[in-house]
Amino acid sequence: MIHKLADVQSKNIGKDTNIWQFCVVLPQAKIGENCNICANVFIENDVIVGNNVTIKCGVQLWNGVTLEDNAKNINL
Q1: How do residues 8-67 score in pLDDT, each as one tens digit?
Q2: How far is 33 from 50, CA to CA, in rounded Å?
Q3: pLDDT in tens, 50-63
Q4: CA distances in angstroms from 16 to 24, 52, 58, listed in the order given
Q5: How confident is the model at residue 72 (pLDDT cuts 50, 70, 90)?
Q6: How far from 48 is each of 4, 5, 31, CA to CA, in Å?
């Protein structure tokens, strides 16, 4: 599910991933399956998010960041 108020430019979004309102996901970002991307998250181009990852509200993931499978409650 991609919330209608999210700006998701990437086509690399895994199955059963939820992206909530006011998120921005740039075109080259890769997000795995069964993820939960909470509100107000920014994900830059050179970012890889594994499967089963939860990213909490307001997090910014900049180029070069990789989150491995099953990472939970990321609030950098």
Answers
A1: 999 999 999 999 999 999 999 999 999 999 999 999 999 999 999 999 999 999 999 999
A2: 7
A3: 999 999 999 999 99
A4: 18, 10, 21
A5: confident
A6: 23, 22, 6
Residues in the chain, total = 76
Distance from C-alpha of 75 to C-alpha of 57, rounded to nearest angstrom: 7
Question: b/e map of 3-14 (b: 16 or more CB within 10 Å)?
Answer: eeebebebeebb
Indicate the residue type of 17.
T
3-class secondary-structure state, position 44: coil
Phi/psi for 8 (5° steps) reads -105, 110
CB 65 within 8 A of CB 47: yes
pTM of the model: 0.92
Q: Which residues pair with 24 in a beta bridge?
A: 7, 42
Domains (ranges, CATH) in the chain?
A: 1-69 (2.160.10.10)
